[in-house]
Amino acid sequence: MKLLMIDDDTGLCELLSEYLTAQGFEIQSVHDGAQGLKLAQTNDYALILLDVMLPTLDGFEVLKQLRQTKLTPVIMLTAKGEDFDRIFGLELGADDYIPKPFNHRELLARVKAITRRIEHINSLSVPTTNNKLLVNGITVNLAAREASINNSTLTLTGTEYEILALLCKNAGEVVSKEQISEEVLGRRLASFDRSIDMHVSNIRKKIAEHIQAERIKTMRGTGYVFIQGE
Fold first, then answer.
1. CA–CA gap between residue 159 and residue 150 (Å, rounded)
2. What number of other Cβ atoms are within 10 A of residue 105's Cβ?
3. What domains can be seen in the chain, in order of their start residue?
4. Is the peptide bond preceding residue 55 cis, with omega within 30 degrees of 0?
5. Where is the Response regulatory domain positioned along the sequence (predicted)?
6. pLDDT for 120
7. N or C: which end of the chain has fewer CB within 10 A?
């Protein structure tokens, strides 16, 4: 699988390129935000590793412009302790984040969690009309990995789709944040980790463009429940 790394730390790029290449990935590295955006827009990558602090265009602007045309999975590389960077990146549509400095094994685990999803999609047969969920006005096509409302497709990132599908499969039941993190992000939920909250917030906003009534209810201190309706 081909990955794009956009980071102005050339030493880090070299080390990670060597490490991830040994794990079977093909890595392309660039050190400038504008150049990285152009490559991301004109090529198909399985995943993008995107630093926040970049010359010409910062990581937020790269992600914002990228999300106007492509839903390529993105892991943001943020400064340790910068909660604003993490939250803002997730609001813009990042799939996950990892604070610097990080353990290379942890990064590999995050990358594999997302690329396994891509491999699963590629292994699917031609979508059929039988593999669908219809819950309270929302249709989730499990084969095509799409969600729609009144035949209008919701523009969801891969992570957002996975969370919505999980909630719909368990409609009427509480799904804990821990379960969502482990099943969707492929990692245990850390203390004070707001990534699941932000992904759910993004899903709600996109649903609200079509349906005004609440569909995902927060169970304080527990998780979320998709409302089944009448």
1. 22
2. 9
3. 2-123 (3.40.50.2300), 132-226 (1.10.10.10)
4. no
5. 2-115
6. 59
7. C
Whether residue 101 is preceded by a cis peptide bond, meaning omega within 30 degrees of 0, is: yes
Q: Which amino acid belongs to residue 144?
A: A
Give whole-number Cα distances, 78 to 8, 11, 103, in Å.
13, 17, 13
What type of residue sits at position 214? Answer: E
Token pair of 116, please? Answer: 């396994």
Region of 66 on the Ramachandran plot (φ > 0 left; ψ -120 to 50 alpha; else beta): alpha
**Mean pLDDT (10-residue bins), the chain, 230 residues:** 96 96 96 97 96 96 96 91 87 93 92 81 49 92 90 94 95 95 90 91 96 93 87
Amino acid of residue 170: N
Q: Could you tell me which of 125, 143, 123 has the C-alpha nearest to residue 133?
A: 143
At 199-218, the pLDDT tens digits run 999 999 999 999 989 999 99
127 alpha carbon, distance to own chain's centre: 22
Q: What is the pTM of this model?
A: 0.86
